[in-house]
Amino acid sequence: MPENSPIAERVLGDLLPERLTWTLCIHIDKGKEVWVIAGMLAQYLESATDSVIVRDDKENPIGTIGGKEIMENLLKNPTSSLFYGTKVEDIMEPNPVVISRDTKYKDLIESWKERGRAYAVIANEWGFYSAISAQKILEIGKRCITELSIEDMPKKKLVTFKKDDTFGNVINSMFENKTRKLFLEGKS
């Protein structure tokens, strides 16, 4: 496809020819308890990823799990049995988004909108899967010439919480406002 065609119509293999599979995805095998993934996510959430692939016995991706699934289930079951006694496959989002080099950019973005998660995997040259996240898509943006400016970006309401709010109130507020970050009122 010509380089001057709209990004939405181009395939990911053309948009990121060398770097598409450079980011290996973090994974966990089914059968592990939720406390294991909670510990992994605590290390990765602010740096590399907010989602982890759950693999079956043959190392195929069967689901995705992240802070969202843990928090949703913590609201339903606010006890330690969620972490010690629940398997990752019991709370994961099944059927992860698996793409290829021939996936169009617009199709990837549409699947992310439907799922509410900017995460997919792609088979790589080493026999497993690499992660495709919003961070990877930003690499495409770095290479583009555009008239888009910061003021053209959608604006989000700043969501806050108070010091005396309960843990449940804070988590519910995150889901209601579709945000991963809240700000403490009265602090700058």
From TrEMBL:
Superkingdom field: Archaea
Native species: Marine Group I thaumarchaeote SCGC AAA799-E16
The name this protein goes by in its record: CBS domain-containing protein
